[in-house]
Design brief:
five-stranded antiparallel beta sheet; 30% helix; single chain; 19 strands; 24% strand; alpha/beta
């Protein structure tokens, strides 16, 4: 009798609760097969906080250091999937600004463009900072200038997808988009409420997609880009600095984080939240309810779900408190028949990693730690 995948890989993935790909990753398996047969693309959406954003991985030692984006888990996951023979792309640039301001996380244009050097922002573009969040947190905003907000992927692409929220009656304005400074197309945001995804096709080459305010207040979420001639898994990094499970559950508008998560219609959602919850005193019961709502929203989008335990931290929350949150995730994994990756069981605890010099501070890892996580996730997805 043919062994199941769970039986074949039981030892290799002993730290994964509910490892049964044939049962709980059916959508991903189908999407991966589609890619491998050259028949289409697949999409993985990452729901997380500053750990998934990769803060701590930059070169200067500060947690929001310049140049950290290439070392975050989603970007490295794409690289490892390619090594394992699964074409993958991580050319996404969702804003992911922080939620509080005041020098924590990615709070302004200067920090975000230093974190991700593929983005440039002319004067007038900065974080929305009005409490209205979408997939990946606070977006870009401009209500004063017509300067460009630009994204230049590091590879040749022929497709950009741009995302933004629209709503009528709130004084939203008009922005335009163009490729390489060519003909501009205008978009009115003062229309029916929605999380919008617009596909722009162009020639295969190195390109820059420019976004420019035309009038009034304009908000913008971000870009995905890829080469449509090579079917691949597109990994969309929604890492949102400082975010909690409650903020991800915002449903104030149809472009708010939870409905936007569903609208992305990913084949797989990787959800890693909790560190900011336990550090800010969110109750275990509230956390459990919030993550359950996100799992439900992800499945409503048609995708599978893998829960990822947050990295253990050494800041305010006690190890006992963190263990209570971990137990909530085990409960959620069991109740929803989804996988849960237990980093502690794999040996990635705060004490061990900090002693080895792999933590940047009490909350964030360094590039080497994020790389280990990405390598493990790539093996997990390849085995599914």
């Amino acid at each position: 009798m043919r062994a199941t995948l769970a039986q074949q890989f039981r030892g290799q993935f002993a730290n994964v609760h509910n490892f049964n790909p044939e049962r709980n990753l059916a959508k991903l398996r189908s999407a991966k097969q589609r890619v491998l047969l050259g028949r289409g693309r697949a999409r993985i959406a990452v729901v997380g906080d500053s750990q998934e954003k990769g803060l701590g991985a930059g070169t200067s030692g500060t947690f929001n250091a310049a140049g950290a984006e290439p070392f975050c888990v989603p970007t490295r996951l794409a690289a490892y999937l390619n090594v394992l023979g699964i074409p993958a792309s991580a050319h996404s640039a969702i804003a992911g600004f922080g939620v509080t301001g005041g020098g924590t996380g990615l709070d302004n244009a200067a920090q975000l463009t230093a974190y991700d050097t593929r983005i440039s922002a002319g004067a007038g573009w900065d974080a929305i900072n009005n409490g209205n969040y979408t997939f990946g947190g606070q977006g870009w905003a401009n209500d004063t200038t017509t300067n460009a907000l630009a994204f230049t992927p590091a590879v040749s692409v022929d497709t950009f997808i741009i995302s933004w929220g629209s709503a009528s009656g709130f004084g939203l304005g008009v922005f335009s988009y163009d490729i390489d400074g060519g003909t501009a197309t205008q978009v009115n945001e003062d229309v029916a409420e929605a999380y919008n995804l617009l596909t722009i096709s162009t020639s295969l080459a190195s390109h820059t997609c420019n976004i420019k305010r035309v009038s009034a207040f304009c908000g913008f979420n971000g870009w995905f880009a890829y080469n449509s001639t090579v079917p691949a898994v597109d990994i969309i990094n929604g890492g949102w600095s400082g975010s909690t499970s409650g903020q991800w559950n915002d449903t104030s508008f149809l472009f708010a984080p939870r409905p936007a998560l569903t609208a992305l219609a990913a084949d797989l959602y990787l959800i890693q939240l909790g560190g900011n919850d336990w550090e800010t005193g969110v109750s275990q019961a509230t956390y459990l309810a919030n993550v359950q709502a996100l799992i439900t929203a992800a499945k409503a989008g048609g995708g599978d779900v893998i829960l990822l335990m947050p990295l253990q931290t050494g800041a305010t929350a006690t190890p006992t408190t963190q263990q209570q949150f971990y137990r909530s995730l085990v409960t959620l994994a069991n109740n929803n028949n989804v996988m849960l990756v237990d980093w502690q069981r794999k040996g990635i605890s705060y004490a061990v990693q900090n002693a080895a010099g792999r933590m940047n501070d009490t909350l964030h890892g360094k590039a080497v730690l994020y790389d280990d996580q990405a390598a493990f996730l790539a093996r997990l997805l390849a085995a599914a």
